[in-house]
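Help! Submission page says 'invalid entity' but I think these are all valid:
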Amino acid sequence: MTRIDSPAELEKLRESILSIRDPNKPCITLCSGSACHASASREVAASIEEELARLGLSAEVDLRKTGCHGFCERGPIIVIHPEKICYFQIKPEDVPEIISRTIKDKEVIERLLYTDPATNEKIIHESEIPFYKHQERIVFGSNGAIDPKSIDDYLAIGGYSALAKVLFRMSAGQVLEEVKKSGLRGRGGGGFPTGRKWEESRNAPGEIKYVIVNADEGDPGAYMDRSLLEGNPHSILEGLSIGAYAIGSNEGYIYVRQEYPLAVDNVMTAIRKAEEYGFLGKNILGSGFDFTVKVHRGAGAFVCGESSALMTALEGRAGEPRPKYIHTAVKGLWDRPSVLNNVETWANVPLIINKGAEWFAGFGTGKSKGTKIFSLVGKINHTGLVEVPMGTTLKDIVYKIGGGIPGGKKFKAVQTGGPSGGCIPEELLDLQVGFDELTGAGSMMGSGGMIIMDEDTCMVDVARYFLEFLTDESCGKCVPCREGIRQMLKILTNLTRGKGKEGDIELLERLSEVAGSAALCALGRSAPNPFLSTLKYFRDEYEAHIRQKRCPALCCKELIAYHIDPDKCRACMNCLRKCPSEAISGGKDLIHVIDQDKCTKCGTCFEVCPARFGAVGKISGEPVPSPIPEEARIIVRKSKQK
Amino acid sequence: MDNESIDRIIDAHQCEASSLIQVLLDIQSEHHWLPREALDRVSQRLQVPLTRIQHIATFYKAFSLVPKGRHEIHICMGTACHVRGASRILDMVEDMTGIKAGETDVDMKFSLETVNCLGCCALGPVMEIDGKTHGKMAPAKTADVLKNYE
């Protein structure tokens, strides 16, 4: 491959790529993101390749291993082009049938289609499925169309045209103005206006400046950055190069968690390809602009998602934050001006340049423009990544896109913003998602995790869970975070174990106040949020834990007991056989009884008891009924009476 | 781990002190833990004091200063897995293996770790053993999965 030395050559290359691509040639796209790998998409890919080879169709049918399509609940997903027939939860054994019937005979296989749970209707195309229909996938949409390892795929969808545009038709100042005008705000947490951050760096003194991609996605339950980096790495490189041009930087870094091996791999391949083609390196596209990118793998520390800590880690040291009286945009990596933006923020940049700030600002609300990718997870029917315009209501996300709560359970809360965020209750479901709207409700946007909780989730335990996470991840540099959060965790743990006492809530509030105002970095200052927001909306649960030693959600292990209802038990032996601690007595015709002293409360009996009996129940806040007399335990079965 | 393979890793990172974390990551991934001799060698070659290396090796989660068992069990404790009952899976695995999170058993069969999110939330609760994902776990299912490992 020869280097591309001008925008004209780039367009020529693009034309030649498109000219050899026949839009009518059958092509199978297979979701090959990390989540689908976990559900065996590699095996499906191997079996497609094998089957095509066996039938001698390898040259006539393309197989494209794309990034994440978003609908992880139903992965692995394949889409067959040009008809765009979409099949879900594909197993290797389905492959021969797909190839013989759908590829060769152009037939649709009903059983692999998506069934709308509301109407029972089979749906053929992705765009008609409710999960996708209500989304606006401007950033994430390309993931399903390109092979992340192929730069040609990216060029075929117009890749690097934004870079060519800024290098030849815009001044750095114009790029900056365009980004400012778009109203783009940081997608990683705080929502700082991107244009203003860039401007600060651009105006900061110093010859050497840096641009950095924050791909240290640490919020548990959030994986949209990984999916973008895995699925469309060139879009991030292009955005980063545009940012570098705007602020006058020639060196960039991608800080990516080593726990994301596929993302590391794909982005390394993308950098190598981009260098070969001349989109990175010296004299990019013949413009005289030089820009190189290095990948730094993060070794696993949540705090490194914080800007100053991340930069310290990049320098090869332990990633601890510092006070930011001077922004990192002015004094960051090696004390030089450094612009750090999140993966999704960078991915938005080429779109803004290509389609214009006004187009971008057309999506969203007053102060939150564009779209946002959320990872919709937890107790939800359609787990996956969803991209919606800012301003979409939580209700639409949970019910229209997410398909509601599984098992007919009742929605309780949605947790947003990771460990720095909070829980939003049912009465606020009409809230529009946006930076200021979520902050106003006591939570925050964060990087976009959206964890749905149902009636079985204990909110005190959720607060305890996040504080445990934060205690574990606190870097230990400042006292309010290191000691304060630890004490909060201690009290919350006591609460969930039935050791809470009057005054605990007030003490937690005081500790929250200190950590909230005195911790060194934003992670410490926001650490009390999970507690404060659950207290605000679910105070009754805290009080029940303290006063009645009762867990209303029947979740906290120390506060519940499992009990077999003698009227419902049909002595089927299921729980008795499965109980790992042999705590259940009974027999074939003998009603089962749990020995409370032996029970470890693992919940196995509750899970294996057939739904038609529903004999195993949970009890909290009241004593377990004493077992019925031995003679009453014998079941006389009708079939045996005959 | 011999000096030769450590040197190879160090040279791949141009022997730069700022690449210390990257060097340690490569050693960890090749060797599954960081032996003292390896750290001495890194300290000597990169001209970084051993105290700083120890600081890094204990600060970041990816590093282990003790050897690992034949099978590494990772239990996802991400929020999505948590609300779907991950802690009950952890309790069960701890019971069955007799070790707590962060430990390795005396026979060096299993090492048990909790991780914050594996990003396969649709499959939660998730347990990963030697890189293989076991999704939709339930306490009753853990025994069936674990007995496949020797």
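Support: the input was valid. A stray whitespace character was the problem, and the output above is from the cleaned input. Residues 529-547 of chain A form the longest helix (19 residues).
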